[in-house]
Design brief:
- By secondary structure, this protein is of the alpha/beta class.
- The protein has 4 helices and 8 strands.
- Strand 2, helix 2 and strand 3 form a beta-alpha-beta unit.
- Helix 1 packs across helix 2.
- The longest helix is centred in the first third of the chain and has 18 residues.
- The termini are close together.
Length: 168
């Protein structure tokens, strides 16, 4: 087990992602952040809070359950999508780890069912490679090349009582 990011490095990394979002989106009033359950919600909330602290603009944030949109599940689940107007907005999907791209594909399907945004961007804390779908993040905290047998575990204080990223 190897610690890839400790608490201080995670905070700096999320702050850097927040600054990158500010730099690439001149009209922050048109930005909406959707955090993919579970740890993408925490990442998305932190990015929104950072942007508000830096720019004084409150970015709308909503949790997004993509499970009903997954292509590897047979059961039919209620969608429970947030009732928001994203037409013409810049939607930033936030998630903790980008691996095969299948979770993000489900997130894209969910977003398109909510409405038609002007643009969708992807903010990821850890990109571990091994894509099965042609998906690339706009904002990446850290690239960690891994083997298929390795696991990347993101721990947030809110869910795990500790703040770190581990490769095992």
């Amino acid at each position: 087990m190897k610690v890839i990011l400790d608490q201080n490095t995670m905070e700096r990394t999320i702050r850097r992602i927040s600054y990158e979002i500010i730099e690439k989106n001149q009209d922050l009033a048109s930005v909406v952040i959707l955090g993919i359950q579970t740890r993408g919600i925490i990442l998305g909330k932190r990015i929104a809070a950072n942007i508000e602290a830096i720019e004084g603009i409150q970015i709308p944030f909503y949790p997004l359950n993509v499970r009903p949109f997954r292509d590897d599940l047979k059961e039919v689940l209620p969608k429970g999508l947030p009732s928001i107007d994203i037409a013409g907005k810049v939607v930033i999907l936030a998630d903790d780890v980008l691996y095969t791209g299948r979770t993000i594909r489900a997130g894209l399907d969910a977003v398109m069912e909510i409405g038609r945004p002007a643009k969708i961007q992807l903010a990821i804390l850890i990109d571990r490679g091994h894509r099965e779908l042609p998906i690339t993040a706009n904002y990446v905290g850290k690239n960690i090349p891994t083997s298929h047998s390795e696991k990347v575990q993101v721990h947030f204080q809110e869910t795990d009582g500790i703040e770190q990223v581990i490769l095992s």
